[in-house]
Amino acid sequence: MLRNGAAGGGGAAAGGGGHRPVRVWCDGCYDMVHYGHSNQLRQARAMGDYLIVGVHTDEEIAKHKGPPVFTQEERYKMVQAIKWVDEIAPGAPYVTTLETLDKYSCDFCVHGDDITLTIDGKDTYEEVKTSGRYRECKRTQGVSTTDLVGRMLLMTKAHHSNIDEDLDYRKHTDNFGKGPKGHSPWTGVSQFLQTSQKIIQFASGKEPEPGDTIIYVAGAFDLFHVGHVDFLEKVHRLAEKPYIIVGLHFDQEVNRYKGKNYPIMNIHERTLSVLACRYVSEVVIGAPYAVTADLLDHFRVTLVCHGMTEVVPDKDGSDPYEEPKRRGIFQLVDSGSNLTTDLIVQRIIKNRLEFEARNQKKEAKELAVLEAMRRLEEEKH
Questions:
Q1: Fewer C-beta within 10 Å: the chain N or C terminus?
Q2: Domains of the chain
Q3: pLDDT, tens only, 37-61
Q4: DSSP line for 282-306
């Protein structure tokens, strides 16, 4: 169990004035955790004082949806790293029951305004909805696991450029999240639009305090994953009062040193993904590739860290960490994880057909529910 380490957001009276803290329950697969998941948990946390997140096992997910990309251990760690989560409940049942809410002393359950179905097409939240212990939050537009998987399966840069989308990409993503009989609004692909409000909601807003050790790390942090979490957790442990600033490189810069169709997520998406991590205090959006004297002085950086991945030279062939090395403040940190964005993409490609089948099956169930809802509405009129 981890207490919420950042950005407050308790909505109800936080245990003050004799009120019992409001305990909130969320659950899900949390496979390929992205900023849409984080935003759901942020909204849920704001509805109460203590957020418990139930995460399903690999076995449960395989039974109802198909194979998960990440193992349950990886998924537990990812959810625990989100700063609005107070506690995780490993091995939560796929169908949310009153028994589960009572077991964890939760007042109600929160889910997005999409629908989650069992293998036989039943709403997994039916019981808690009927009993009035269900709340809804807004689904984050412009991101879905389906979309991210689609981006990985196609070697195109259309997903992070301002040019018109590649027709092959649009055609593929349409096929990926759409069966032969139509399109579900819950398993589709859409464009994410960044706003200042969204950044404010995700940011901690905390300035460094006297005695803080200001640590700077830089990179792409693409498809923010458990390897990144392991690295940032290790960096966080280097000081008693760490204040970690993450410098995110612009998309064009990432593409220069990563090649192919990287980054999978654009700069706006990567910003929110990193801000949601409990170990991160601040993000520099579009940080220079070379860690300069100006940057170090501006942020009063005490320590600069880099993982065990290769450091690609700057455009002029120089070492981007030359200045922090000269100052004697550069440190390599071994996260102990060998997971990289490349490896995740390889996992997806290896299971491509299974993932395509999974999404088409999921969408077929959703369309059946939509049709049933439409018929009910017609009968009322």
A1: C
A2: 23-137 (3.40.50.620), 196-332 (3.40.50.620)
A3: 999 999 999 999 999 999 999 999 9
A4: EEEET--SS--HHHHHHTT-SEEEE
- Answer yes or no: pTM beyond 0.85: no
Q: How far apart are CA 2 and CA 85, in angstroms?
A: 8
In the block, tokens 């390889």 appear at 346
- 320, 311 contact by CB (below 8 A): yes
Which residues are within 8 A (CB) of 166 and not within 5 positions of it... i.e. 6 or more apart? 154, 156, 157, 158
Residue 331 φ/ψ, nearest 5 degrees: -140, 130
Tokens of 110: 């929160």
Q: 154 falls in which pLDDT band (50, 70, 90)? A: confident
Coil, strand or helix at 214: strand
Is 169 in contact with 159 (CB distance < 8 Å)? yes
Cα–Cα separations (whole angstroms), residue 381 to 29, 372, 373, 376: 38, 15, 13, 9
Assign 336 to helix, strand or coil. coil
- 55 pairs with which residues across the strands? 28, 90
Q: Which residue in 223, 200, 230 sits closest to 305, CA to CA?
A: 230
Alpha-carbon gap, residue 286 to 267, rounded angstroms: 8
233 phi/psi in degrees, rounded to 5: -65, -45
